[in-house]
Amino acid sequence: MAGKSVFHSEVVRRAQQGDEKARNDILEALNQLLRAFFIKRIGLKPEVDDLVQNTLLRVHRGLADLKDQSSLKAFAMKAALFELQDLYRGRYSAKEMLYDPDHSPEQRTSDGPAPRQLDLEKALQALSPKARRIIELREFGYRYEEIAEMIGSTEAAIKMQVKRAFEKLRGLLVILLGLLLAWS
């Protein structure tokens, strides 16, 4: 392999055919490239490791389906861009609310009457258990393909479930908001 880049079509083809050394060489080269890409964009943050790992997983999963072996590097950089977009959308942020240990989250700060609020939990109860589970998994940051594996469905079916669930929730929330505004 002297003189040949690990991104050369022949090396990629061997990796697709099961050559473990070729695959490892490609992933190692991508690891360094991706790490530099993410550090340049977000700095030396703990999320860099997650971004690199998730991008490498995308590349590893998609390697067999790559038709043009000469486009591996472009394919990997597009996967990196998707991961970066997920970061900006909040996928990598903490999902837990942190509270001051001296104050219970249930303690109210004012003595006045509680403001009227939309109860999203009640709105979610209008969804089927399957749709509710899918929405929860999306909120936890799972991708459609991961949810499809967990639920035992197809990615397209999961996307349609999410679309229908949001349409139903949107309709319910419009009604609830209208009622709240009428009572105010």
| CATH level-4 homologous superfamily of the largest domain | RNA polymerase sigma factor, region 2, helix turn helix motif
Q: Tell me, what's the shape?
A: elongated
Distance between the termini: 74 Å
CATH top level assignment of the largest domain: Mainly Alpha
Strand percentage, roughly? under 5%
- Report the uncertain regions: none
Largest sheet: none
CATH fold topology of the largest domain: Rna Polymerase Sigma Factor, Chain: A
What is the element string, with H for helices and E for strands?
HHHHHHHH
How many separate helices? 8
Helix content: 55-70%
Radius of gyration: 23 Å
Question: Structural class, please?
Answer: mainly alpha
Count of distinct strands: 0
